[in-house]
Amino acid sequence: MKIQGAVALITGAAEGFGKAFSEELLKRSARGIGIVDFNAAKGKATETELNKKYGEDKVRFFQCDVSSKDQLEDAFSKTLEHYKGIDIVCNNAGIGDELNWEKTVDVDLVAVMRGTFLAKQYMDKNKGGRGGIVINIASMAGLYPMPLAPAYSAAKHGVLGFSRALAIADKVFNPENVRLNCLCPSFSETAILQQMKGLINHNPVAEAIYGAELQTVPVSMVAEGFIQLVEDDSKHGEVMRCTPQNGIDYKKFRDISKL
Ligand SMILES: NC(=O)c1ccc[n+]([C@@H]2O[C@H](COP(=O)([O-])OP(=O)(O)OC[C@H]3O[C@@H](n4cnc5c(N)ncnc54)[C@H](O)[C@@H]3O)[C@@H](O)[C@H]2O)c1
């Protein structure tokens, strides 16, 4: 997809990956971005910073807890109303709170599913949309178990299963319409990792799995992968990985018709 002139809605974009994705889209002359986040202070600050850098009204912040059905629906309709269309949706907001695991599943999986259905509703060419792309942010914890964060790992596995199943169905029943891909980063230095370090640091299980020093990928690598998925129209139903070992690559799965 050509990014120039496109409109995006990105959840959890007040900081971290979502903010970096927004900035990469703006560098390529995206028309506007709805930044959807529950952190009003950081969301407003990011709106001000990016508008100053890339031009007035390039970014609009919408405060929203993605785990609220009404608030998420409202954020989609406000972005559409403001920028007159939506072409790119990134379901990125996430938390890693194992003590409040129901909330983790609500934010990291249920809201991603709801955001995907809303994106398809708004972008589907058969429903008045222009087609587009959805990118769901999973994690390497969605491909392999993360023993220190089982709820987070379950939610991220769910994101992959849901997105791949829907993409395969779309290839058959609704092709050339809305592309759907997943992005699975390794650990990266953002706020969520700071929270998770409470589980990881000085934990012998973590040390046994990840070694004495946690390997991370730069946020810029994850943002580069995101742009690749947006721009490459051949990518549909793919699972991109960003890892310190192999950089950006795609996970190969067995063809389900051969299972
Ligand atoms: N950083 C990593 O190590 C890492 C690795 C793999 C996957 N991820 C995933 O990447 C995504 C982005 O995380 P990040 O690393 O940028 O972390 P981050 O903490 O910097 O950003 C997460 C953003 O989501 C927002 N958010 C959280 N709960 C929300 C809610 N209920 N409603 C609306 N917004 C909410 C936060 O306010 C924040 O702005 C998450 O889904 C995370 O699970 C992160």
TrEMBL record:
Enzyme Commission number, as recorded: 1.1.1.141, 1.1.1.232
GO cellular component terms, A-Z: cytoplasm
UniProt KW keywords: Oxidoreductase
Record CDD domains: ADH_SDR_c_like
Enzyme type, top EC level: oxidoreductase
Top-level taxon of the source organism: Eukaryota
Coiled-coil intervals, chain numbering: none
Reaction(s) the record says it catalyses: resolvin D1 + NAD(+) = 8-oxoresolvin D1 + NADH + H(+); 15-oxo-(5S,6R)-dihydroxy-(7E,9E,11Z)-eicosatrienoate + NADH + H(+) = (5S,6R,15S)-trihydroxy-(7E,9E,11Z)-eicosatrienoate + NAD(+); 14-hydroxy-(4Z,7Z,10Z,12E,16Z,19Z)-docosahexaenoate + NAD(+) = 14-oxo-(4Z,7Z,10Z,12E,16Z,19Z)-docosahexaenoate + NADH + H(+); prostaglandin E1 + NAD(+) = 15-oxoprostaglandin E1 + NADH + H(+)
Gene Ontology molecular function: 15-hydroxyicosatetraenoate dehydrogenase activity; 15-hydroxyprostaglandin dehydrogenase (NAD+) activity; oxidoreductase activity, acting on the CH-OH group of donors, NAD or NADP as acceptor
Name listed for the protein in its UniProt record: 15-hydroxyprostaglandin dehydrogenase [NAD(+)]
Organism: Strongylocentrotus purpuratus
